[in-house]
Amino acid sequence: MEVNIYINTFHKGRQHQGTGTYAATLEYIAQTTGEPATLQLYKGVEGTTKNRTALIACLDAFSRLNTPCLINLYIDNNYVTETINQEWYKAWDMENWTSKKGEVKNADLWKEFFINFHKHKVSISFQKDTPYSSYMQTMIKKVKIEYKEDTHV
Predict the structure, then answer these.
(1) For the domain that residue 32 is a member of, what is the CATH number?
(2) pTM beyond 0.85, yes or no
(3) Residue 136: inside a domain, yes or no?
(4) CA-to-CA distance for 141 and 152, rounded, in angstroms?
């Protein structure tokens, strides 16, 4: 099954302790009906960073997929797209989650991300505006914060 995932994120407040919100739209052909379908996700996290919010959004979208898929991921976050497309992760020591600069930031989320990355066939593109951006940005403003991160960012 092929799935298009569109993710928009928003972060406000202090860079490392702000509130992150995201909207994700999964676009696919429903297996039961053969008709186009979408699934909308909107959530928020307090006490987080912009990049953690983007990774959490990806993980939330991936968690909705029950079988290995061909995923076209469109996201408005350079950190995620460049880490994958520039293959920065290949320089990481994945056993110790370190890089030349020290400990890999957000290693806890990257570990989960790569489990999904290897389960599915994923292509990632940076895309600020998607077919759903206007609607998703409206919905992001209405998001209730789901939880506070319990991390030492």
Answers:
(1) 3.30.420.10
(2) yes
(3) yes
(4) 26
